[in-house]
């Protein structure tokens, strides 16, 4: 199911259930954080899940833990952070993954590791073997063996596009040089309205894709969708997560 169809279906269910769902919301709505001032567009106008929208449900292999993970399985138990990367990237993908790793470190040091789930998702499964995902995670500072670190790997590129582009609305495309030089990475950026995609020099990079990290509360609602127009520092991410955690105490 693509992102637009998902939104229509959830809206229809919401109109039927109505008041029955209100008890699960915060006092002012389904989120702890207020609407971000830096977001120009309304959530409904964006291709990806954004403020106060529900996290789509997808099930993917988690090869570092030899199991499958469903994105919504943490509802009522853990706050979730997701991002979309490929390991041969030499631009933002290592930073996006490192941001989640620093959250994991902070959670370990401050005793809330069992309150979060960190879900980087690769869209390059042909290249990103389990061993590459393990090494990439460790090189970014994560503990890939921890149960709160689930690096998800679709079984094929077609499935990756179906999930990342179709379900989550995160634009990703192969370039003409896909698989020709895995050492090459990002080299330029392209901005389109309220989304910023990270591009490549078409002569040397395998993908062009949108940069996105989602912070989702344990009720399954998006608190923040950080795209290329507002890439947070690790401290900002940890601060937003702390506010959300405190809102559920």
List the helices and strands and how they pair.
Blueprint: H1 3-17, E1 59-62, E2 67-70, E3 79-85, H2 92-110, E4 116-122, H3 130-139, H4 157-167, E5 172-174, E6 188-192, E7 195-199, E8 207-210, E9 212-216, E10 222-227, H5 234-247
Parallel strand pairs: 3-4
Antiparallel strand pairs: 1-2, 3-9, 5-8, 6-7, 7-8, 9-10
3D structure, described in words:
- The protein is of the alpha+beta class and 249 residues long.
- It has a single domain, classed as 3-Layer(aba) Sandwich (Glutaredoxin).
- The chain has 5 helices and 10 strands.
- A hairpin with a 5-residue loop joins strand 9 and strand 10 (222-227).
- The two termini are 34 Å apart.
Largest sheet: 4 strands, mixed
What is the terminal-to-terminal distance? 34 Å
Q: CATH architecture, please?
A: 3-Layer(aba) Sandwich
Contiguous uncertain segments of 5+ residues: 3-25, 180-203
Series of H and E elements: HEEEHEHHEEEEEEH
Shape: globular
Please identify which CATH superfamily we are dealing with: Glutaredoxin
- Strand content range: 15-25%
Query: Which range best describes the helical content: under 10%, 10-25%, 25-40%, 40-55%, 55-70% or over 70%?
Result: 25-40%
Question: Radius of gyration, rounded?
Answer: 17 Å
Strand order of the largest sheet: 4-3-9-10
Q: How many helices in DSSP terms? A: 5
Oligomer: single chain
Could you give the count of β-strands? 10
């Amino acid at each position: 199911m693509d992102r637009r169809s998902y939104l229509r279906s959830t809206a229809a269910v919401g109109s039927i259930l109505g008041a029955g769902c209100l008890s699960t919301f915060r006092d002012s709505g389904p989120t702890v954080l207020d609407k971000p001032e830096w977001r120009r567009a309304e959530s409904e106008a964006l291709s990806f899940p954004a403020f106060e929208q529900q996290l789509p449900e997808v099930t993917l292999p988690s090869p570092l833990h030899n199991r499958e993970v469903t994105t919504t399985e943490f509802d009522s138990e853990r706050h979730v952070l997701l991002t979309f990367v490929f390991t041969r990237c030499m631009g933002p993908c290592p930073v996006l993954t490192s941001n989640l790793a620093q959250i994991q470190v902070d959670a370990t040091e401050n005793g809330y590791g069992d309150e979060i789930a960190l879900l980087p998702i690769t869209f390059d499964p042909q290249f990103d073997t389990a061993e590459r995902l393990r090494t990439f995670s460790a090189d970014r500072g994560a503990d890939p063996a921890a149960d709160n670190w689930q690096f998800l790997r679709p079984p094929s590129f077609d499935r990756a596009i179906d999930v990342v582009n179709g379900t989550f609305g995160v634009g990703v495309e192969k370039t003409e040089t896909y698989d020709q030089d895995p050492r090459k990475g990002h080299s330029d950026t392209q901005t389109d309205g309220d989304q910023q995609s990270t591009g490549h020099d078409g002569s040397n990079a395998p993908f062009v894709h949108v940069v996105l990290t989602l912070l989702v509360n344990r009720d399954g609602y998006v608190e923040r969708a950080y795209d290329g127009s507002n890439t947070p520092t690790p401290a900002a991410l940890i601060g937003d997560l702390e506010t959300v955690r405190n809102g559920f105490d």
